Amino acid sequence: MKFELVDRQGYIPDLNYGASGHELSCFIPGDYPFQQVSYNNGEGEAVIDKHTWRFFFTQEGIGIQLMDGIVMLKEAEHFLNAIKAHIWGKTHQEVQIFMAGVTPK
Question: Can you list the positions of beta strands (E) in 28-94?
Answer without folding.
Answer: 35-40, 43-48, 51-57, 61-68
